[in-house]
Design brief:
BEACH_dom_sf; BEACH_Domain; single chain; NBEL1 protein; mainly alpha; Neurobeachin, Chain: A, domain 1
Length: 274
C-alpha cells in the first residue's frame, strides 16, 4: 500500500482509509471509527487558494497544539501531572481525537446517529451551543481550547448530506446570538455542502497535503504515537486509550471490568501502531 501511495497510484483519501483499516478502525464501531485529519486552517476567506501553503493546517503537530499558544499549557499539564497511586502515566490530553461521542457530534443530522446521540444524552438533544453547527466555529474552538482535540471523520470528504438538516430536527438555538441551529454553517469559500466537499477533497489531494501527510500519519498511526517521540511531539493521551495498556482479561471483578470497558469505549482509542 505504501509503495502504491508513494507512486501516486492511490489517492491520499484511499491511503488514509487503508491505514485506518489496517489499524483496526471500522465504520461498524463508533469507538474505533476511521480518523481523518483537519487539513485546512482557512475557513474565513472568500476564495480558497490551494497553492498557498498558509491555508493548510500544520500536519506535523497534534491538533491540540496547532495553535502555538496552547503548547505551553499542554506541556505544563504533562510535566506537572502526578498520580499519587502511580497507576496513571503522564499525559498531554485528557480527551481524545476520535471517540463515539465525536462521531455522533459530527453526524447528528443523519440517522442512525441522531437517535444514538439522543440516547447518549438521556433522551434529548444536547444543548444547542454544544452542537456541531458551524465549520468555521468548530475550527476556532479547536484553536482556542487545548482540551478540544477532535480530528475529522471520512464523511468530511465525500458526504455532503451530513451538513444539511434534511430531516428538520429541532436542534435548538444558540444562547448568545439566538441563531437557530439548522444546516451546518460553511466556510465563506464554500457555496453549498457539495461545493464544500468538492473543495475539501481537492485540498486533501493537493500537492501540499501529499508532501506533508506522512507527518500526521506518524502521530496517529506511527512512531510518534507513543514513547519518547510522542512526549516530544506533545502527543501523549490518557493511558487507557492505548492498545494493550489495560489487560481486561486479568480483571476478575465483573463490575470493574465493565466500568473500564465502558470508559475505553466512550473515551476514544488510539489506533493500533503500524
Amino acid at each position: 500500500v505504501f509503495q502504491k501511495w508513494v507512486n501516486r497510484e492511490i489517492s491520499n483519501f484511499d491511503y488514509l482509509m487503508q491505514l485506518n483499516t489496517m489499524a483496526g478502525r471500522t465504520y461498524n464501531d463508533l469507538a474505533q471509527y476511521p480518523v481523518f485529519p483537519w487539513i485546512l486552517r482557512d475557513y474565513t476567506s472568500e476564495e480558497l487558494d490551494l497553492n498557498n501553503p498558509a491555508v493548510f493546517r500544520d500536519l506535523s503537530k497534534p491538533i491540540g497544539v496547532v495553535n502555538e499558544k496552547n503548547a505551553k499549557t499542554v506541556k505544563e499539564k504533562y510535566e506537572n501531572f502526578e498520580d499519587p497511586l502511580g497507576m496513571i502515566d503522564k499525559f498531554h490530553y485528557g480527551t481524545h481525537y476520535s471517540n463515539a461521542a465525536g462521531v455522533m457530534h459530527y453526524l447528528i443530522r443523519v440517522e442512525p446517529f441522531t437517535t444514538l446521540h439522543i440516547q447518549l444524552q438521556s433522551g434529548r438533544f444536547d444543548c444547542a451551543d454544544r452542537q456541531f453547527h458551524s465549520i468555521p466555529a468548530t475550527w476556532q474552538a479547536l484553536m482556542d481550547n487545548p482540551n478540544d482535540v477532535k480530528e475529522l471523520i471520512p464523511e468530511f470528504f465525500y458526504f455532503p448530506e451530513f451538513l444539511e438538516n434534511q430531516n428538520g430536527f429541532n436542534l435548538g438555538q444558540l444562547q448568545m446570538s439566538k441563531e437557530v441551529v439548522n444546516n451546518v454553517v460553511l466556510p465563506k469559500w464554500a457555496h453549498s455542502p457539495e461545493d464544500f466537499i468538492y473543495k475539501h477533497k481537492k485540498a486533501l489531494e493537493s500537492e501540499y497535503v501529499s508532501a506533508h501527510l506522512h507527518e500526521w500519519i506518524d502521530l496517529i498511526f506511527g512512531y510518534k504515537q507513543r514513547g519518547p517521540a510522542a512526549v516530544e511531539a506533545l502527543n501523549v493521551f490518557y493511558y487507557c486509550t492505548y492498545e494493550g495498556a489495560v489487560d481486561l482479561d486479568a480483571l476478575t471483578d465483573e463490575k470493574e471490568r465493565k466500568a473500564l470497558e465502558g470508559m475505553i469505549n466512550n473515551f476514544g482509542q488510539t489506533p493500533c501502531q503500524l
